[in-house]
Inverse folding.
């Protein structure tokens, strides 16, 4: 199967070297999605033979890279697509855990959860509380127990790639939106335990204001997805095609 790792990055130049080294040592094909960084991310990629896509404008958050990597993976006709954050928190040696359920045909959307086994970096207390609330809501909506719904460590199969590249032409701004729309389209969800690290360089985009708005935006997105539920075409064995 053709597997592509999408490394999302905004001003992560100091972390990218270790991220790239980790992925190369494990033999993965990857592309860096540069969300209009103001540092030398693009120059670093260009000088080191790294495949990259650079946004001409910043989308405001990392979620603005999602439609970019879905469309790119569809263009390459990928079987499996994984999101891998450029901040160094994700570990290439853990990728097989989220890839295998897709390759085996057991799931279409796989979440790497920090909380199933409680190993490695566990995020910050207030954010963990919000994650628990959203996980409880999403679990009720999907009918499947979920623990780490905001995890950026995810794998998607062909039908999820096609759904967002060929059918759903709107902006993705939240992981709850990504998860619930995939579920409503017929994607089979799975969650596997993974280990993550803490950030070494730079600061997370979830600063004070974002942390305050995070639960508000999350609830609005869940409500919006529920309103769209009846409009989402279910996956029935053939990839969505806009042509």
């Amino acid at each position: 199967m053709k597997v592509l790792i999408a490394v999302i990055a905004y001003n992560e130049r100091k972390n990218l070297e270790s991220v790239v080294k980790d992925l190369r040592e494990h033999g993965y094909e990857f592309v860096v999605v540069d969300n209009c960084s103001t540092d030398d991310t693009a120059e670093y990629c260009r000088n080191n033979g790294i495949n990259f896509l650079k946004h001409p404008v910043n989308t405001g958050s990392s979620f603005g890279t999602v439609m970019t990597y879905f469309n790119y993976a569809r263009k390459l006709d990928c079987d499996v697509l994984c999101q891998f954050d450029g901040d160094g928190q994700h570990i290439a040696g853990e990728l097989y855990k989220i890839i295998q359920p897709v390759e085996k045909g057991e799931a279409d959307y796989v979440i790497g959860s920090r909380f199933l086994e409680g190993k490695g970096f566990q995020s910050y207390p207030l954010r963990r509380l919000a994650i628990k609330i959203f996980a409880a809501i999403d679990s009720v909506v999907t009918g499947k127990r979920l623990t780490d719904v905001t995890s950026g460590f995810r794998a998607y199969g062909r039908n999820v790639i096609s759904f967002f590249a060929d059918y759903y032409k709107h902006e993705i701004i939240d992981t709850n939106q990504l998860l619930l729309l995939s579920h409503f389209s017929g994607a089979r969800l799975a969650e596997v335990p993974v280990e993550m690290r803490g950030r070494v360089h730079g600061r997370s985009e979830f600063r004070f204001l974002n942390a305050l708005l995070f639960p508000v935006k999350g609830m609005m997105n869940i409500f919006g997805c529920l309103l769209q539920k009846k409009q989402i075409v279910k996956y029935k064995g053939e990839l969505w095609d806009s042509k």
About this structure: The longest helix spans residues 208-228.
